[in-house]
Amino acid sequence: MSDSLRELLxxxxxxxxxxxxxxxxxxxxxxxxxxxxxxxxxxxxxxxKADDPEEWRRWADTDVPIVTQWDDGDHTGPxxxxxxxxxxxxxxxxxxxxxxxxxxxxxxxLEVGTGTGWCAAxxxxxxxxxxxxxxxxxxxxxxxxxxxxxxxxxxxxxxxxDGLLGHPGRAPYDRMLxxxxxxxxxxxxxxxxxxxxxxxLPWETPYSRHNAVVRLVVGDDGTASGRFRNRxxxxxxxxxxxxxxxxxxxxxxxxxPDDTRRSTTGLPAGEVLxxxxxVFAFVAGLLVPECVHTHGRSPQGTPTLWLYGxxxxxxxxxxxxxxAQVFQGGPRDLWGEVEAAHRWWTERGRPGHTEFGLTVTAxxxxxxxxxxxxxxxxxxxxxxx
Length: 385
Ligand SMILES: C[S@@+](CC[C@H](N)C(=O)[O-])C[C@H]1O[C@@H](n2cnc3c(N)ncnc32)[C@H](O)[C@@H]1O
Prior knowledge:
It contains twelve helices and 19 strands. It is an alpha+beta fold and 385 residues long. The protein folds into two domains: 2-238, Rossmann fold; 247-347, no CATH class. A nine-stranded mixed β-sheet has the order 8-7-6-9-10-11-12-18-19. The longest helix has 14 residues, at 139-152. The radius of gyration is 22 Å and the shape is globular. The mean pLDDT is 94. The structure holds S-adenosylmethionine. Residues 85-89, 112-113, 115-116, 118-119, 135-138, 141, 162-164, 179-180, 234-235, 237-239 line the site of S-adenosylmethionine.
C-alpha cells in the first residue's frame, strides 16, 4: 500500500530523488497510534487498528492529515474531541515543506512540533540522526514520539519544551522546520539559525484559519525575510492559538444595539466568500490587523460575513442578499477596512500568496510585503482614503 503512496507522491513531483530513501527508511505507519482520526474532506473519521487492521493500514498510507491527539490530551476514547492538538501532517505537504527547507548533507536541523516523530525520522534518515533535534511541548506526545522513533530505529534528540524558545543548546542550526501554525515569529528562532540559514514555517493572521508556509532566510543583520509558498491549514502553536470569539461579548442581547451603524455594500459575496476567498482572506489578514472573520448563512439562508476586532469590541455583520446590508458597532470601521483591502488587492491585479513575503526585523516586528521588501503592505485604514 505504501507503494501506492510513494507512486502518488512521486508522480505529483513532491517526492524527489533525495527523499525516496528516507521515505522507505521511515514508514509513516510506524509513527501512528492504534486509534487515529484521518481527515476526509474536512471531517475526521475514527480508525482503530484493533478493530480493522487493513483499514488502519490503508489510511496510514493515504495522503491525508491524521489527527493523533485531541484537546491537549484531555480527551480520551475513540470519539472525536473538540480541538485537534497533534497530528501526522499530510505526506505531500511534508515533502513540499522539505523542498522549501532545501537541506544539504551534514546540515543541522531543529524541528519545532515533533508530533508523531515521523518528520524527525525522515530528517534523521536524510541527514543523520545526530544532526536532528526536535522540540515538542506536550510531554506525552514527546514520549510517544521517542518510543516510535526508537522502534523504527532512529534516535534524534527529542526535547520536551516550548518550541518558541528553540533549543539553544545545539544552536546554531542550518535549517529550522516548524510544523505548527505561527502568528508571531520569535526572535529565538532567528538568533539560533546561522546567517544564510533557512526557517520554514506556516504563518497566519487572526483573520483566517488558512495559513501559508513562509520560507525565511536569515540575514547577517539579525533579520529574516522571504516569500510565502503553499497555502495550508496547520494546528496552531499552543501559546499562539488566539482567543475564542464569543458573539455575546460583542453583540449582547437578541437585537442590534441602539448605536449600530447601518450602511450597504456594493461588494458581491463571491469576492469575499467565493472561490478566490482563501487568497483574499489571506490578503485581508495582512491589511486588516487584529480582526477575526467568520462566515456562514443567516436563518433565511443569506450568505453572511462576520468581523470581530481584537483589542476592542468592534464588530461588523454583512448580509449578502439583495439589500446588501452592513451592520457595525464599536470604534473601528471593520467592513470599511476589508473593502479597502479588497480595493488595494484588486488595483494590484489580485496577486496570489506567493507574490507576498514577510520580513521579521531585528527588533522582532513582522512586516508583510508585496513583490519585495521595499513594498510594504499597508494597513487597510490608511489605504482607504
Ligand atoms: C501538526 S503536529 C506536528 C506533526 C509532526 N511534525 C509529525 O511529523 O507528525 C504539531 C505539533 O506541534 C506541537 N506544539 C504545539 N505548540 C508547540 C510549542 N509551543 N512547542 C513545541 N511543540 C508544539 C503540538 O503538540 C503537536 O504535536
